[in-house]
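Hi R.,

As promised, here are both runs. First protein below:
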Amino acid sequence: MTRSKITILAVSLLVLFSCSKTDPIPDPTPCPIPPTKLQILTQKTWQVDEIHRNVSGVNSKYIKGGVNTTGANYDVWRLTFNANGTGTHVYTNGVSYPTTWNFTGTDQQNMVLTSNGQTLNFNMVEINETYFYATSPVNNILESFRLKQVP
């Protein structure tokens, strides 16, 4: 064999045996499954962050840590939802009452909550990991509110 053929053979063998088998490509990390509305709703207690009210044509509002023209103490108002359809409602007077609740449609945009003998219909319900939004007509009162989770 000629010197050049021996050199080519040696280099080829060196390249062939110096290559290592590559590791297989790892499976991608699966994306986390976002929590459902029910999971978000039931994981913590909710408090009023902002509420706009219309009582017989007169508007008022409450903004936590700011203005309150409603005449009610929304600082103490709380709702707790349990996955079994029960919960608690702390009213503006600070008294806690047991509740029952349920979504009234498969889209989970309407809810009925009963507490202290009063039935509240929450419409246009939107729940995310930061806020709970809804509008509720009660007698001559229309309330549109935003709740946030108590830390």
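And here is the second one, sequence first, then its structure tokens:
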Amino acid sequence: MIFSYLRRIKFYETDAMGIVHHANYLHFFEDARVELLRASGFLQQKSLDQINYPLLESQVSYKKPLYFDDEIEVVVDLTSDLLRMSFRYEIRTKRYPVPAAFGSTVHIAMDMETRKPIRLPDVLKNLT
């Protein structure tokens, strides 16, 4: 499933040079990932009290700087198998003809009572 999330860079997300601090890219990825799950109806279907989705891996490749007040589009591509959800991200802006950053995160489903990995719910597998 491919999803697009739009937002504007806030002042507090930048450093002293007015450039987005590198750690904020992971926040952008998380915002886009949550909005994808919300748009799909998943957040209304499953209680996060019973199942959670911890992060196993994250990666960011920075290509071009982002600046205060840039409008960005975070494009998310979700794939999954029985146990893992993998999200690939591209951050785009009108400032550049090419993506400003690429990244990925990998998550598993975890039973909150036993704290052990479980199979992904069918509703998540069906999103891909």
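A quick note on the second one: The chain has a mean pLDDT of 92. Let me know what you think.

Best,
J.
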